Description:
It is a single chain. By secondary structure, this protein is of the alpha/beta class. The chain has two domains: about 25-255, Type I PLP-dependent aspartate aminotransferase-like (Major domain) (Aspartate Aminotransferase, domain 2), CATH 3.40.640; about 255-345, Aspartate Aminotransferase, domain 1 (Alpha-Beta Complex). It has helices spanning about 10, 25-40, 45-65, 75-85, 100-110, 125-135, 155-165, 215-220, 225-230, 240-255, 255-275, 285, 300-310, 330-345; strands at about 15, 70-75, 90-95, 115-120, 140-145, 170-175, 190-195, 210, 295, 310, 315, 320-325. The strands form three sheets. The chain has a seven-stranded mixed β-sheet with strand order 2-8-7-6-5-3-4, sandwiched between helices. Helix 7 links the parallel strand 5 (about 140-145) and strand 6.
Amino acid sequence: MYADNFPLLTNSTYLNTAYVGPMSLGLAEFRRKQEEVYVQKGGDYKSQAYETLEETHNSIAHFFGAQPDHTFVIPNFSVGIRHALSLFTKKLEVLLVDEDYPSLEAAFEEGNFNLHKVPMQNNLEEVIEQKLTKERIDILALSIVQYASGLLIDIEFLKDLKERYPDLLIVGDGTQFLGAHHFHFDTAPFDVVVASGYKWMLAGFGNGVLMISQAYLDRIRQKKTVLYKRVFNGHFNILAAVSLKFAVSAFEEQGFDKLILQKEKLTEKVKQALSEYEFIPSWVSHRKQHSSIFILEGKENLYEELLNQNIQCVKRGKGVRVSFHYYNTEEDLDKLISALKITTT
C-alpha cells in the first residue's frame, strides 16, 4: 500500500527513518510543480511566498497543537535552537544529558550559560530529578527521543517537574519525535521544541519547526516579533517551507491518529521480538514506553551483514540502529529477525 507512494520501500527493507525519512512521490510531484511556478514567475513566486507564510504557520501550528504566532518554519534544528537561545541575556543554569544530540549540546556550549550534565542512563528521569533537588536549574534541555538509544523521555514525568518547579524552562529536541508520536504543544510541558523535518515528518531537507511558550517569552522579556525577525532575517527557503506544510497536510489527510496507532502496534511487536531473541538491551522492555528506534547488539560486522541482507540501517555507538515508521510492516520485522538469526549462527 505505502510502497506505491514511497518507491524506496520497494528497493530494500527500509529501517532507517531515524537517519533520513524517504521522500514520497506526492511530495516530489508537489515540489516539481513549485519549481515550475518559480521558473515561470520569478519575483512573483517570492512575493507570493511571503504572503502565504502565515498560512504555512497556521497549518503547522494546527497540526502540532501550538499557537500560530508562536510557531516558526526554520531551516533545521541546529539553526532553530540557536535562534531560540540567542535571546537569553542572563547567564542561566542549564541541565543537559551527557551524550545527547551533539548539535543540542553545542548550541548551549556556544551560548552564555552555565552547564550541568547528568549521565545518559536507563533511568534518566530519576537522575534528572536528583539533580534538580540538589542544584538550582533554570533550563532543562534534552532530546525527547534519544537518537543513540531510542529512549523516549516520560512526558508525564516532565509535566510533574513543571508543577513542582514552575520557573523551570524545558527545551526539547523533537527531531526524533515529531511526526512519530502524538503531540500537542500547548498541553505539553515544553517551553521550546525544535525539530528538523527530514526524518519522521517526511518533509525533505531544509525545513523544520520551532515552537515557543509564553513562559519562554516572559523569560527573555521580548515580544514574539523579535524572534520572528531573527528567524526570517533575509530570504528563506520557500520550497522547503511549503514542503513541510505539504507533509503535515498529508499526515492529516491520511489520518495521523490511525497511522500512529499502526506504528505503535508494530513497535510493540518489534520490541517483543527483539527482546525475545536478546538482540536489544533488557532495559528497553523495562521502561513504561519506548520509541520505535532500537539499537541492535551483535558482533562487530553486524552492520555490514544487515546491509548484505538489503536492510537499511545505520551504525550508532557500539550497535546498529533500526527504526520503524507507519509504513513499515510485520514483514519488515520478519526480514530483520531472519537476518539477525543468520548473523548469530
